[in-house]
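ARCHIVE CARD
CATEGORY: sequence design from structure
SOURCE FIELD: tokenized fold
FIELD CONTENT:
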């Protein structure tokens, strides 16, 4: 059973078996990933790309192999289109800066949606502020689905880029990203897809989607923290300037003029988190050897079970009821403050998230201060869903 591979899940919290339902925030790591990172630190650590010695060559090779593993996993055309960053946030900031620098002028427009994580709002706002450009927002409806007619009407001659979540981290909605991209491309506008909540749950084929940029974080796909991916079509990556300057990203440095290195190094200034990248590749290998199809089928079944159990709890309101969804459930219970509910669940050994989930516009939409969020992963079980629902009933009783 997959669960056995995750040592963190075996512990007791306040004397109760841990029920970890905070996977949208970060996922736990399988032993295989922990072993890979340990091995790197114990036997192989050496800075990449800079040494002629054995250890450096070995870690450089593992790092470039990691890039190819990610290329294969997301079906990118070229390995140079895979850039290692610090995470989804780092990737979006890089594109907001570099793309904005090259293509956005005063009066231009950027489209995002009302359900974006702050990481896919604020970097665009910063860039728009710098360039005196304007942010336009696709609204979502009461079920938590994007209003596609409104989206179509947002385009103008001034639209420069669309940035959209593949899956909402609060509503759980799977957005129709392929259609969103087709519509944008019909206007000649590129699209960045924020895959932070998708990469670990659904097949991502960047060529089939035809997205221009795709970003995600390693720690949400059972890999280490501090590592993430920025996929970009090479035609864009050649055109846009680097986000950061430093070692490794240069070809020739002169005080008069500096030239940049080839892709992907142009976007990997300084010492990258190479151990993180190798750990991330190990997580992807783990998923693949476990069988991603089987994982997805299991998660689908678990999500349906959890949804049906949650819907049968009187007084529980779920925010985000799209049929196209994953096992992320944001809800409120009978007017009980989400923080109180979260604290009481914690004492039962149940880990959930409470608050705005870095999506304040979603909270504003529903006119709530925050919600409780339970987010499931491949190692969760129906028994845990039952413990969770019993816990919610207890919370209700305590407040009645
Ligand atoms: N985008 C979405 C949809 C997310 O859920 C998150 C994190 O929760 C992020 C972006 C930011 O990810 P990170 O903090 O790993 O950079």
């Amino acid at each position: 059973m997959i669960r056995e591979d995750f040592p963190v899940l075996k512990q007791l919290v306040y004397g109760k078996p841990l029920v970890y339902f905070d996977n949208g925030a970060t996922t736990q790591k399988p032993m295989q990933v922990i072993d890979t990172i340990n091995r790197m630190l114990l036997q192989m650590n050496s800075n990449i790309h800079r040494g002629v010695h054995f250890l450096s060559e070995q870690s450089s090779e593992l790092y470039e192999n990691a890039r190819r593993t990610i290329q294969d996993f997301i079906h990118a055309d070229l390995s140079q289109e895979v850039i290692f960053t610090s995470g989804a946030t780092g990737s979006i900031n890089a594109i907001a800066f570099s793309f904005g620098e090259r293509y956005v002028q005063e009066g231009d427009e950027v489209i995002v949606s009302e359900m974006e994580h702050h990481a896919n709002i604020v970097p665009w706002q910063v860039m728009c502020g710098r360039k005196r450009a304007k942010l336009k927002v696709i609204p979502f409806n009461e079920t938590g689905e994007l209003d596609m007619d409104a989206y179509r009407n947002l385009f103008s001659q001034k639209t420069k880029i669309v940035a959209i979540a593949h899956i909402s981290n609060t509503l759980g909605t799977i957005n129709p990203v392929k259609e969103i991209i087709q519509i944008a491309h019909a206007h000649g506008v590129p699209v960045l897809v924020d895959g932070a909540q998708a990469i670990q749950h659904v097949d991502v084929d960047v060529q089939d989607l035809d997205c221009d940029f795709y970003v995600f974080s390693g720690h949400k796909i059972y890999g280490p923290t501090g590592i993430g991916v920025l996929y970009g079509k090479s035609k864009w990556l050649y055109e846009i300037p680097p986000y950061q300057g430093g070692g490794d990203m240069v070809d020739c440095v002169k005080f008069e003029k500096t030239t940049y290195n080839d892709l992907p190094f142009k976007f990997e200034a300084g010492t990258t988190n190479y151990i993180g990248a190798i750990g991330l590749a190990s997580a992807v290998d783990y998923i693949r050897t476990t069988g991603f199809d089987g994982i997805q089928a299991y998660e689908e079944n678990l999500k349906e079970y959890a949804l049906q159990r949650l819907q049968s709890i009187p007084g529980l309101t779920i925010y985000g009821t799209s049929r196209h969804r994953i096992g992320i459930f944001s809800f409120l219970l009978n007017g009980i403050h989400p923080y109180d509910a979260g604290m009481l669940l914690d004492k039962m050994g149940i880990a959930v998230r409470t608050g705005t989930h870095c999506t304040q516009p979603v909270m504003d939409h529903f006119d709530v201060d925050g919600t409780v969020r339970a987010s499931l992963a491949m190692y969760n079980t129906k028994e845990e869903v039952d413990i969770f629902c019993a816990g919610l009933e207890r919370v209700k009783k305590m407040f009645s």
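CARD ANNOTATION: The radius of gyration is 22 Å. Residues 87-89, 117, 119-120, 165, 169, 194, 196-197, 217 surround pyridoxal-5'-phosphate (CB under 6 Å).
SHELF: design records, drawer C
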